[in-house]
Structure formats: structure tokens, C-alpha cells
TrEMBL record, chain A:
<protein>
    <submittedName>
        <fullName>ABC transporter permease subunit</fullName>
    </submittedName>
</protein>
<dbReference type="GO" id="GO:0043190">
    <property type="term" value="C:ATP-binding cassette (ABC) transporter complex"/>
</dbReference>
<keyword id="KW-0813">Transport</keyword>
<dbReference type="InterPro" id="IPR035906">
    <property type="entry name" value="MetI-like_sf"/>
</dbReference>
<feature type="transmembrane region" description="Helical">
    <location>
        <begin position="191"/>
        <end position="217"/>
    </location>
</feature>
<keyword id="KW-0029">Amino-acid transport</keyword>
<keyword id="KW-1003">Cell membrane</keyword>
<feature type="transmembrane region" description="Helical">
    <location>
        <begin position="92"/>
        <end position="109"/>
    </location>
</feature>
<keyword id="KW-0812">Transmembrane</keyword>
From TrEMBL, chain B:
<protein>
    <submittedName>
        <fullName>Amino acid ABC transporter permease</fullName>
    </submittedName>
</protein>
<dbReference type="GO" id="GO:0006865">
    <property type="term" value="P:amino acid transport"/>
</dbReference>
<feature type="transmembrane region" description="Helical">
    <location>
        <begin position="102"/>
        <end position="127"/>
    </location>
</feature>
<feature type="region of interest" description="Disordered">
    <location>
        <begin position="267"/>
        <end position="292"/>
    </location>
</feature>
<keyword id="KW-1133">Transmembrane helix</keyword>
<feature type="transmembrane region" description="Helical">
    <location>
        <begin position="139"/>
        <end position="159"/>
    </location>
</feature>
<feature type="transmembrane region" description="Helical">
    <location>
        <begin position="72"/>
        <end position="90"/>
    </location>
</feature>
<keyword id="KW-0472">Membrane</keyword>
<feature type="transmembrane region" description="Helical">
    <location>
        <begin position="20"/>
        <end position="42"/>
    </location>
</feature>
């Protein structure tokens, strides 16, 4: 037992989880921004914007995140020489955040669109009747209600993002959970089960509060109809 | 909902400004595409040799097709296993025995929360180090078992919510003709729930296929790994990854399309709700928002 605790300290498991939480935070922020823009594009009157949004969502949603991460590092960084930071480690972190954000934006867009579906048609009609143009209708009437109606699917996207932050291993982010666990079980195979359960329980502890919080929030914030 | 309630049917002036907007939007999209192509050309990435090496017969015969076969094989086996696992534990969660219900809930919630990659890393080490005489190909088995456990847990939730979402009268009818609760579940509710969840299972195949690409990280020779091996010889990762991505996208879009068609066709066959999942891993809760 003491040996296991030493092992967990030696490899800084808490630090690994902290890195994944940071990846999740910045990835979620980026995904929320891109996803909201995509959602507005997909409900906009301009056919060209609707079309571009649909193409983005359909392509990204059907591409494995691993492919996106590998592409960012092997193609964008190695071949095209694009760098997101002068710091070597920070560069990979930033690429991983971009990968996570770009991938999950497609799901954020769909979550918001499912929220738009919860807004009664009469609301938009009333907004038009008092003379509001599209952007004002979307910004002041539809989106605020849509966000409150889409908290449950947004929460699922956030949980998926947290779990997918382990795929940052494919973008060469060192010291995050997947890489740390890999090193640990390779050097100490005799501790395979306890090490796995440490990481697994860690994710269970992180995921369950997000699920509970979003269920509670969606019940509390959803507009009662 | 049609999005058109958000804006009026445009008049002549609106139509003109929308046409202008479309042209501007189109120019912006084409401009971005042109900028990407020019940048790529500037870096020498549009060089024909690189693309030929990524698309010639040798690349397909020795890299993409075997890789695609491995990906599809792992996904197919994992899907069958996940459906079996899902029905078993989904019924477990509906059992009237508290112990069974509780155990199934713990198993399902655990495997839904653990990242598939960690599961693959763990199983790969477990099979490769400690069960060598039992498991011939540890990477392949780890990929399949990890996908079965995660997606099985998701499908278990689909089964449970499928049964719960059936109209109450279904079980009442079963009970009133003298069936036991277990018989009602097996012979009335479950068959309907299975039909209702079929489109979501097909969508879940997209998740399985995407997650199988994680096998690359534990050395399974899937499509992504094959593309990488090819590119390390030809030093054309951009081109080979592009081909691999297109293959993934084509297969997955076909599956999503099938899920939508299936959902429409099956909606008349069951009183449960048929809806394809979003393809991110948790279709049940994700569609719950639609009801409002």
C-alpha cells in the first residue's frame, strides 16, 4: 500500500488530472465559441452560411478525434511549420486544445440547435411582428432560451470532452493522464490493477458531478412551458 | 422545426440583400479554400509525387485497405458484443431484484465514465503481459473489449430508457393478461424497445468506428496507424492522413444516413420514440433536451 502511494506520488497523478482539466476548460471554451457561431450560421437566412455550417458539422462529427489530433501535429506542425507557441510543451498543449475545440464545436452546435427546437415558434413570430431583424431575434429572443434548453446535451458534450482530453496523448501532450498511466503500467506492471483503478475512479469522480450538475441546472433553468 | 420562422419570407429588397449576402458568403468560403490551397502549394504540399505516393495502388493494397479491414473488423465485432452486453445490463437495470439492479447500475455508470483510451491501455497491458497464452493479439483484443464495455454501457442505457419511454399501458396490458413482470419485460416491452433503439444503435456504430482509431495509440494496425506507417516511408503525412480521414468520413456519413432512414421507417413499428443518436457517446441524455 505504501509502495503504491509512493508510486502515485512519484508520477504526479494529481498533476496529470490537473492537466486534463485545463485541456477540458480551454477546449470547452473554444468549442462553445465556435459551436455558437456555427449554430447561428445554421439557422441564418443566408443559404451560403447554412450550407457552410452543415458541411463543417457533418465532416467534423464523422472524423475520429484521433485523426484530427494526429493531423494537427504530423501535418500542420511538422509539415506546414505552423506553431502555436514558442514554448515546445505549450505548443503541443495549444494544438490539443485546438483539436478538442474544433471537434467538439460540431456537437455544441447540434446541442444548441436542439435547444432552439425547444423555443416555441410563436416566440420568433412575435419577435418578427415587433419588427426585429434576424440577428436581433436570434440574439435577444431565441438563443437565451435555447441555451437554457440545451444544458443537458451541452453537459453531455462537456463530459465527452473531459474523457476525450485523454486523446491529447495523440497530440504528444506529455504528462496528461493517458500518457502518465501508460508510463506507470509499463514500468510497474505489478501495479497494473491499482494504477488503472486510480485513474478510472478519478474520471468517475470528475464525470459524475458534471452529470448531476447539468441535470440539476437543466431542470432549474429550462423555461417551463 | 423549420428555421424559417426566425425570419420573414423576404420581399424584393430582402431577396436582393440575401443574394448579395450569399455571394459575399460564397466568396469568403472560396477565399478561405483558395488561401489554404495557396499556403499548401507554397509549402510544396501540392506536389504531385506526394499525392501519388498517398493514392497509388501500392498504398491502397498494402496500407489503406488492410487498415480499413482491421478498423471495420474491430468495429463490427465490438458492436455485436456491445449489443449483447447492453441488452444484458439494460435488463439488469430493470430487474426487480435490488442486488441485480444495483450491480448493473454500478457497472454501467463505471464504464460510461472511464475514457476508452485508458481502458484500451489497461487491457493491452493486461492481455499482453499476464494473459499471453489466452489472448493471441493483445492490441486487437484490447480495442474490441474496451469498445464493447464502453458502448455496451451506452446501449444498456438505451435499452433502459427505451423501456421506460414506452407508454404505461404496454406493461399494464401485459400484467393484466396474467404475465409476470419478468415476462412482460421480455415478451412485450423489450422487443418494442429494441426496435425503437435500433437507429440509435446504428448511430452508435459511428462512435465505435471513431473510437477504434484510438487503437493506433496502443499499436493496433487500424486505418489511421496504416496511414501513419505509409507516411513515415514517404514523408507525406498530410496526404495520407487526408485519405484516411476521407475514408472514415465516407463510412460514417453513410452510417448516419442509414440511422436517419431507419428512424423514419421504424417509427410506425413501435410506440417507443425512434431517434438516431448524436454520435458523441451518450445518445439517451442528448436527445432528452429535444423534448423540452
Amino acid at each position: 500500500m505504501t509502495e503504491l502511494l509512493d508510486l502515485l506520488r512519484q508520477y504526479d497523478v494529481l498533476g496529470a488530472f490537473w492537466l486534463n482539466i485545463q485541456l477540458t476548460f480551454w477546449g470547452a471554451l473554444l468549442a462553445l465559441v465556435i459551436g455558437t457561431v456555427l449554430a447561428v450560421m445554421r439557422i441564418s437566412p443566408l443559404a451560403s452560411l447554412r450550407w457552410a455550417g452543415t458541411v463543417y458539422v457533418d465532416i467534423v462529427r464523422n472524423t475520429p478525434l484521433t485523426v484530427i489530433m494526429t493531423f494537427l501535429v504530423l501535418a500542420v506542425w511538422t509539415q506546414l511549420g505552423v506553431s502555436l507557441s514558442t514554448n515546445f510543451t505549450q505548443n503541443f498543449f495549444n494544438f490539443a486544445v485546438v483539436g478538442l475545440g474544433v471537434y467538439h464545436a460540431a456537437f455544441v452546435c447540434e446541442a444548441i440547435r436542439s435547444g432552439v427546437n425547444t423555443v416555441p415558434v410563436g416566440q420568433a413570430e412575435a419577435a418578427r411582428a415587433i419588427g426585429l431583424p434576424f440577428l436581433a431575434t436570434a440574439r435577444m429572443i431565441v438563443l437565451p432560451q435555447a441555451f437554457r434548453g440545451s444544458i443537458a446535451p451541452l453537459g453531455n458534450t462537456l463530459i465527452a470532452l473531459l474523457k476525450n482530453s485523454t486523446v491529447a496523448a495523440a497530440a504528444s501532450v506529455a504528462n496528461e493522464t493517458a500518457g502518465t498511466m501508460k508510463t506507470m503500467v509499463e514500468f510497474r506492471p505489478d501495479y497494473l490493477w491499482p494504477v488503472f483503478f486510480t485513474f478510472a475512479i478519478g474520471f468517475v469522480i470528475l464525470v459524475i458531478p458534471i452529470g448531476l450538475a447539468t441535470t440539476w441546472l437543466s431542470n432549474k433553468l429550462a423555461v417551463k412551458r | 422545426m423549420s428555421s424559417s420562422v426566425l425570419f420573414d419570407e423576404p420581399g424584393p429588397r430582402g431577396r436582393r440583400s440575401m443574394a448579395i449576402g450569399n455571394v459575399v458568403g460564397g466568396v469568403v468560403v472560396l477565399g478561405i479554400a483558395a488561401w489554404v490551397l495557396v499556403t499548401l502549394a507554397g509549402k510544396g504540399q501540392l506536389d504531385g509525387g506526394l499525392w501519388r505516393a498517398a493514392t497509388n495502388t501500392r498504398a491502397w493494397q498494402f496500407y489503406y485497405l488492410p487498415g480499413l479491414r482491421n478498423t471495420l473488423q474491430a468495429a463490427a465485432v465490438a458492436t455485436v458484443g456491445a449489443v449483447v452486453f447492453g441488452i444484458l445490463f439494460g435488463m439488469g437495470r430493470l430487474s426487480h431484484l435490488r442486488v441485480v439492479r444495483w450491480l448493473s447500475s454500478v457497472v454501467v455508470e463505471f464504464f460510461r465514465a472511464v475514457p476508452v483510451l485508458l481502458m484500451m491501455l489497461f487491457l493491452n497491458n493486461l492481455f499482453g503481459r499476464f494473459m499471453r497464452d489466452l489472448v493471441a493479439d493483445s492490441a486487437y483484443t484490447a480495442v474490441v473489449v474496451a469498445l464493447v464495455l464502453y458502448n455496451g454501457a451506452v446501449i444498456a442505457e438505451l435499452v433502459r430508457s427505451g423501456v421506460v419511454n414506452l407508454p404505461r399501458g404496454q406493461s399494464e396490458a401485459g400484467l393484466s393478461v396474467g404475465l409476470t413482470p419478468g415476462q412482460t419485460l421480455r415478451s412485450i416491452q423489450l422487443p418494442q424497445a429494441l426496435i425503437a433503439m435500433l437507429p440509435a444503435v446504428v448511430s452508435q456504430l459511428v462512435v465505435v468506428l471513431k473510437d477504434s482509431a484510438l487503437g493506433q495509440l496502443i499499436g493496433y494496425k487500424d486505418l489511421l496507424r496504416s496511414a501513419q506507417i505509409l507516411s513515415s516511408g514517404e514523408s507525406n503525412p498530410l496526404q495520407t492522413l487526408f485519405v484516411a480521414a476521407v475514408l472514415f468520413i465516407v463510412v460514417n456519413i453513410a452510417l448516419s444516413f442509414a440511422a436517419h432512414r431507419l428512424s423514419r421507417r421504424l417509427s410506425s413499428r413501435t410506440s417507443g420514440r425512434t431517434a438516431p443518436g448524436p454520435g458523441i457517446g451518450n445518445p439517451v441524455a442528448a436527445t432528452a433536451g429535444v423534448d423540452g
